[in-house]
Design brief:
Aminopeptidase; 5 helices; 7 strands; 32% strand
Length: 197
């Protein structure tokens, strides 16, 4: 841990990190359960949402010049329609909700406590404004018998429960991306987890 560098970026300054963050997202999300066949062009379009939001936040971990971990968050009101929709449909005031994007770490850097650090950093950022009542994130739902699920796969549900998050099955979105080996994007069911600040 002593050799790692930590960086914080907000709003438009996040754009400085797009290349590193895009490559890290593509690398980590290739693994189950996301199985994401990513491209840098798609990533930059996705990340523009964060650079356009003044209160968006990026916390990044570097080992030398290489980004090895990162996490993001953004006010739900600044997110895309597909992310906002289940909350609006359920009657939430989206101006009171902070949405947590990815938490991604290369395998060699897991088990060092950085997963908790990612939540600590984002929750502190959201709470610092004094106007948000809830944080949330979503996770992909894959069938239990998915053919590409590794035998030793451990979902993160227990970790999220320890962090105080509760699964909210009525809050769901459909996100589209190409799975590994696919040429065309297909829809994936995403279920949200929520926590009161």
């Amino acid at each position: 841990m002593s050799d790692l560098r930590f960086m914080h970026k907000t709003g438009s300054d996040i754009a400085e990190m797009f290349d590193d963050l895009a490559l890290l997202r593509i690398a980590v999300f290739r693994d189950f359960p996301y199985l994401y066949e990513g491209t840098v062009a798609y990533e930059k379009a996705y990340l523009k949402t964060y650079a356009d939001a003044a209160r968006a936040f990026l916390f990044a971990v570097y080992d030398g010049d290489r980004m090895v971990g990162a996490t993001t968050c953004i006010p739900l009101a600044d997110e895309t329609e597909e992310v906002q929709k289940p909350f609006l449909d359920a009657g939430y005031d989206i101006s009171k909700v902070f949405y947590f994007g990815e938490s991604i770490l290369l395998p060699a850097y897991r088990g060092l406590g950085l997963g908790h650090r990612f939540f600590d950093e984002r929750e502190a950022h959201a709470a610092g404004f004094g106007t948000y009542a809830m944080t949330c994130f979503c996770a992909v739902q894959r069938p239990a018998d998915h053919p590409l699920q590794p035998a030793d796969y451990q979902p993160l549900d227990r970790f999220w429960l320890k962090r105080g998050y509760q699964k909210a099955p009525r809050l769901q979105s459909l996100f589209t991306w190409p799975d590994l080996g696919e040429q065309v994007a297909s829809a994936k069911l995403m279920t949200y987890w929520i926590k009161n600040l």
